[in-house]
Amino acid sequence: MSNSKTILITGAGSGLGEGTAIGLAQLNYKVIAGVQILPQVTALRKKVAELGLENNIEVIKLNILDKYDVKVALKYDIDILFNNAGIGESGPVFEMPLDIVRDNFETNVFAPLELTQQFVARWITAKKQGKVIFTSSVVGLFTQVGLGAYASSKHALEAIAESLAEELKPYNIKIQTINPGAYFTGFNETMAETAFRWLDDKKNITKRADLKAGFDAFFSSSYSKLDPAEMIDAMIKIIPSDTGKFRNAVPQLVEDMLKGVQLKSWENTI
What we know:
With 270 residues, the chain is an alpha/beta fold. It has helices at residues 15-26, 38-50, 67-73, 98-126, 148-167, 187-191, 208-219, 228-238, 252-264; strands at 6-9, 30-35, 57-61, 80-83, 130-135, 173-180, 247-250.
């Protein structure tokens, strides 16, 4: 795909999404950067202007759960859809309120699938080549204690992406996933705080101090602080490319870890 292609990115208001939008624009791709809330629109437009990228990035409000935002996004003629927007919820699944689990699936699975369906239908009707990339996660391929609800939504996304990849081959529409590890963008740190808004030591079996100790141990490890620049560099190569792997875990140590965990899972006992 040439640099003339237009790429729509959801969840471009911070972290890997923002970095990828800027990186692709610097490579002279046309980027529609969708952000969740209006303050992010203002902040990103300011950053785009400071970088002199106004001709390559258009910043729009795109809350993927807002039907009016989605209607605006669907007016764009794009070549690549990067479904990057997502939320994360932490806490023990056996006690987590079900409305929170449903919200996780609504944002991470149903909304990106609906947006994908609409763009794919347009491409097929127009007999146009297209590409869809989903931001999954390393926990789309294994489950970390305390992140079961988030991981299950990413597992579901993996299954949908695999199915789409086969279904859409006859129409020359490509599908990929990107599976970031624990990059130090603030997303994982914020997700770890979500359980503490509903966990109640007077009602719940899981105690707040125990859950916090588990998260603190993880965030004190070097694995939890991977440099996001490494992931962004990989993403700006993966997203516009005509070729590549279906699943993309970065760096290599993360891919190796995932393969080891998946192999070991066959030896798990109850």
